[in-house]
Amino acid sequence: xxxxxITSGRAHRNGCAAFIKDRRGAxxxxxxxxxxxxxxxxxxxxxxxxxxxxxxxLEAVVQQASRQILTxxxxxxxxxxxxxxxxxxxxxxxxxxxxxxxxxxxxMVDVQVATSWSTxxxxxxxxxxxxxxxxxxxxxxNPGNAGDIVVVRVMYLWPVFLGPLGFTLxxxxxxxxxxxxxxxxxxxxxx
Length: 191
Hints:
Elements: H1 2-21, H2 26-70, H3 73-77, H4 83-98, E1 108-114, E2 149-159, E3 176-186
Antiparallel strand pairs: 1-2, 2-3
Helix pairs in contact: 2-4
């Protein structure tokens, strides 16, 4: 009886040694160990690239749209319109240029006149949300007159997802990232 237990123990040790020496699945295990962090890094890089690309695109669009206020085109084309109509027209101008990456309904456009360069509000606004997660801030629209200092801010909540290992680019309580582009300028004199 003692001999059977010794043989059984020796066979178990030989089986473990054979398992350790077996290299047939080693490549698959090594790939799984290396692939997981590599794929996590790729996901984080793609998300970071998309956020910075969208931010860059938004800034270019704001510069183009603001030029219409700077030169007085917006003011003359909306003469006789109500403030709401003029605001909608300018929002549509911005929207027509960003439709590739952004949803027009998510764009928030704020146009303000400042009394001096030191009082120009170019800061990121604090967004307020309702129970459904919609932004409740009220945005101004005042393109000013010739010689006025104008600040145009366009904001968008870019959806981001929680990345690997807790990596996230969100800066809002609803898990999205606020992208904002600003242009501050003095309107050209009327010709």
